[in-house]
Amino acid sequence: PSLEVEFCGRLYENPLMNASGVCCMTTDDLDSMARSRSGAFITKSATSTDRAGNPEPRYVTVPLGSINSMGLPNKGIEYYLNYVLDRQKRFPSENPPFMSVAGMGIDENIKLLNIIQDSEFSGITELNLSCPNVPGKPQVAYDFELTDRTLKSVFQFFTKPLGVKLPPFFDFAHFDDMASILNKYPLAYVNCINSVGNGLYIDVEKESVVIKPKDGFGGIGGEYIKPTALANVRAFYTRLNENIKIIGTGGIRTGQDAFEHLLCGATMLQIGTELQNEGTGIFERINTELLQILEQKGYQSIEDFRGKLHSIT
Ligand SMILES: CC(C)(C)CCc1c(C(=O)O)[nH]c(=O)[nH]c1=O
Q1: Using an 8 Å Cβ cutoff, are 240 and 246 in contact?
Q2: 169 half-sphere exposure, CB direction, 13 A CA radius
Q3: Residue 283 and residue 295: Cα distance in Å, rounded?
Q4: Average pLDDT for 199-203
Q5: What is the model's pLDDT at position 166?
Q6: Which terminus has fewer CB within 10 Å in the chain: N or C?
Q7: Domain boundaries in the chain?
Q8: How many CB atoms sit inside 10 A of residue 139's CB?
Q9: Among 70, 128, 217, which residue has the most ligand 1 atoms within 8 Å of its CB, making it the best to mutate?
């Protein structure tokens, strides 16, 4: 069997890639992703200028996953754009890396996407809609009217392949409302999910939180969030028109986890927490485990089962 997938008109040797934020802050990180057995890779969400982000400790690995409040540290969009354009020139036959952007508001998102639109970048762009809004209002993706306005503005000028990174939703009315907004736009994909927001992890011995920012509140990743990630992948897969693909992110630690996301309808798969724990060798391991599952089940390709999760009749 083969793990080859077609995504946005390009062929990838396998569906695995890093989640934006992990193993993608520096050119060394990105080069290690390029050397790995991942099928693709993506930059850290970029802002207009470089950002130091929040004070440390700001990312902590915990037994069942991770908690983070990084605060969008990144080298700025020119740094990442230079990297991906250089790779495009040096390896013209390869798929370019994905570019991720996260403006601190709708105006910066428009500015960042105009920079990409006006560049030679021929790859796929991911717009992080978990980006913060004005203080006191929820993140963009939890403000449906603002999401609609943002996408309407973006598609006035952006003609390259664009996906959006979404936080988890938990209510069918929200799945329905968000899907009806997203279906209005020529999106290449939706990436479900970002970390589960504002969790709290406690060190009982110290009777303390474990990260410094926000009194210890941070995004949760890892095993904790797989059921929520799978549900969001399935909910959008069954609601969005078939031109909008799904990237599944959240709780992928084994070939089986990868298989579950594909069964729910994902086309590409992103790994964050477990990549942070294990390093880029994880891509070889999960590709091997996933291939074993296809062999055991007699599947020749992912197409044979993608999205074919059974309900109980
Ligand atoms: C949470 C934001 C800082 C608004 C965006 C960047 C981001 C971060 C981060 O940089 O803190 N962490 C995540 O788990 N997901 C994200 O999307």
Answers
A1: yes
A2: 24
A3: 18
A4: 98
A5: 98
A6: C
A7: 5-54+72-196+223-304
A8: 17
A9: 70
